[in-house]
Amino acid sequence: MTAAPALSVRNLTTTFDLGASRVAAVRDVSFDVMPGEVLGLVGESGSGKSVTLRSLTRLLPSGAEVSGQVIWQGRNLVGLAPKDLRKVRGGEISMIFQEPATALNPVLPIRVQIEENLRAHTTLDRAGRRRRSQELLDLVGIPDAARRLDEYPHQFSGGMRQRAMIAIALASAPRLLLADEPTTALDVTIQDQILNLILDLRDELGMSVVLVTHDLGVIAQTCDRMAVMYAGRIVEEGGVSPVLGHPAHAYTLGLLGSVPQAGTERTVLRSIEGTPPALSAIPPGCAFAPRCVFATDICRTRAPELVGTTEGHAAACHHSAMVRHQLGVSA
Amino acid sequence: MTADQPLISVQEVSKSFELKRTLSERFSGLPPRAVHALNGINLDIRRGETLGLVGESGCGKSTLARCLVRLYEVDGGRVWFEGRDIAGLSGTGLRAFNRRVQMIFQDPYSSLNPRMSVAQTLAEALNVHRMVPPGRVAARIAELLELVGLPQDAAGKHPHEFSGGQRQRIGIARALSVEPEVLVADELVSALDVSVQAQVVNLLLELQEKLDLTVVFVAHDLRLVRHVSHRVAVMYLGKVVEIGPTEELFRAPRHPYTQALLKAAPSLDPSQRSRKVAARGELPSPIDLPSGCLFNSRCAHVTAHCRAEVPRLEPRRGVHQVACLIDPSDRTDPS
Predict the structure, then answer these.
(1) Which of A11, A17, A118, B220 could cross-link with A68 by S-S, CB 3.0 to 4.6 Å?
(2) Fold of domain A1-92+174-223
(3) Interface pTM (ipTM) of the complex?
(4) Residue B26 resides in a domain
(5) Looking at residue B211, which CATH number applies to its domain?
(6) Which of B187, B188, B193, B207 should we substitute to test contact with A (largest number of A Cβ atoms within 10 Å)?
(7) DSSP 8-state code for residue B316
């Protein structure tokens, strides 16, 4: 692609204070998001995918430290004063969360929660805000919007709450939507509705999306490009079809093998032995080496760099040539 | 008993849970309302098979699982085990039933006693059912740990010292300690990461083969259900809408809900994208059930007939059964 990226992240590292020591939840992560692109961050619990997303706008607990660069509209958000960052956060960059029941304020009607964001990030007057909040509920597909605006979150179903949260996020007309497991708590038919809604809004509003999920199927169905995270690092990235079709990192291959696929019913799944390492005890060399069937001596001593294998597809694996000979998703 | 007689037979089972009345409802003398979790379930479970129960939240799959092991008493209908109504069991008959039909729960964090070591947890089950003489308990615990792939030093540890996947293995070891014939696994791996899910699913399939188990596999994940089940029952609002052999049901789903569910499940193949929503709307309230077919409010093929008549689960072309009123030409004569 020749266009300039909308968001450019370089060497992002996030550490947390554990009292006696610090641990790095995200280590040296770099990626770009193009205008109108949906980038998926995928990984298992503790891989650092959610912390990466939250580090972009420093939505982190006190004691967390972010270094590196997050270049947005020509500015580095890392090191931006809290007052200036607040204008970006929830304004140009909006976020939606996994659990809308806890992300919404239970004691305020939905209308107040949407208008709050309109007041903070637009110049609309009172009447304009009222009109706009109803338009937003219509936009996210909540039927009977005029009446439902005055209802409280507990009167909404899980899917409708997620729609309401998306309406709040869209109130500021963001250029970038950060979505942290937005459909994990939802049933599959509702998940399908919400993911389609996010894609429709991307098309309509031309915004970019970073979608964090643990579900490779969600990535395959919604994202343009994807990055696979393990133990705080990006281990593989590229277009969704090349990465899922010809994975170049042993971990990606293992993840794909762990997901049951049609035609192999009741056979042994290619699972990954063991469990991911604790952040305080990340093995030297390649963090995945202790669980990897391809691992050799070099993997246990030298950390692999993220290097390109083909156009726009990169993996941090000493044995990516060998991994690529295995099969990914059977097409 | 003949060989093809089902091991467990569920007939017209219904179960509802009464809601607490609000103060104003009590003052106005309104009768308590109820959540209708199961609304006339019919299915058979055959010896040695894995039956998958699949559906979204509120479809009643977990309630049905609990009715199968008599954790819940049914309101209506019957659950037969080897030709005996389990509601009528008591004393030694009930004890034997409890031993032969075991349940494994979704959450290994809350279903294990945090104050008991693994050895104590397993010994309790072994002693309650007098599975081995007291002198053999330690040896049997060692065998069980080996069976589920846990190291021997696990015996002295407590649940908090294990990862989620290992805890689920402890749950499986506890269920297997009493040498059951039926395992009812309620969302066995849904709390686990995908790489660990695969390990536990592999273990379940291996154990089923080795120990000749009948398995009821309750899950919302269609890929998992397809992977482990010989037959699958799809549930919606407390009813079975379609049941049949896994391969046929996934290749040629007949009920509009099954079709929507399969379409909504995100495929790993990016070339199979669809930007059309699989099913509109949301689950109706299980308190005030719709009339006629329970799926009619979301069905793309709905007719006036569907709002009036309740469809019965009937055989269609092929071997599987479908509860749907549309396209009656598909129906074969059950006689």
Answers:
(1) A11
(2) Rossmann fold (3.40.50)
(3) 0.90
(4) no
(5) 3.40.50.300
(6) B193
(7) B
